[in-house]
Specification:
The protein is built from seven helices and no strands. By secondary structure, the protein is mostly helical.
């Protein structure tokens, strides 16, 4: 007895299969885009929504368009390094911790920023004085930056 393939069954599944494949490719893209748009509109700072800034509002606050195009962690690092010229590292580390608490997406960059602050503190205050400001902000990254600059 010879087995034959039922072509009618395959033909009946063709359009449904094509629609299914199309949805399988398009639906994840739509979901990611809509999720990304939703996350950008959430007020992550915990303060009232009237103080929330969107990406388009940044230039209205006085930030240059060049700074607005840079990554938030780069803007924060540069701001804190500038602040370190005027204030002691303890104050700057507090501001770093507050920025990370207010914007949890910066947490992955906290150690890198704290290390840069540690290296800069050594140039400004010397190794011994800079080390006296070390505390567990972003683990011990500030102290690591001090040690790296001192070595």
């Amino acid at each position: 007895m010879k087995h034959s393939t039922n072509h009618q069954t395959r033909r009946g599944q063709g359009p449904a299969r094509r629609v299914g494949r199309t949805l399988a490719l398009v639906l994840p893209v739509v979901m990611v885009l809509s999720g990304t748009l939703a996350v950008t509109r959430v007020n992550w700072s915990g303060s009232p929504s009237s103080s929330m800034l969107t990406a388009t509002d940044v230039t209205a606050v006085g930030v240059s368009s060049r700074a607005a195009a840079r990554a938030p962690q780069d803007v924060l690092r540069d701001h804190l390094l500038t602040e370190l010229q005027e204030r002691d590292p303890g104050v700057v580390l507090t501001h770093l911790q507050e920025a990370v608490n207010g914007h949890p997406s910066l947490a992955t960059h906290c150690s890198t920023i704290a290390r840069a602050l540690g290296r800069a503190a050594v140039r400004i205050y010397g190794a011994t004085r800079a080390q006296s400001y070390a505390r567990p902000v972003c683990d011990t990254a500030f102290a690591s930056g001090v040690m790296a600059a001192h070595s």
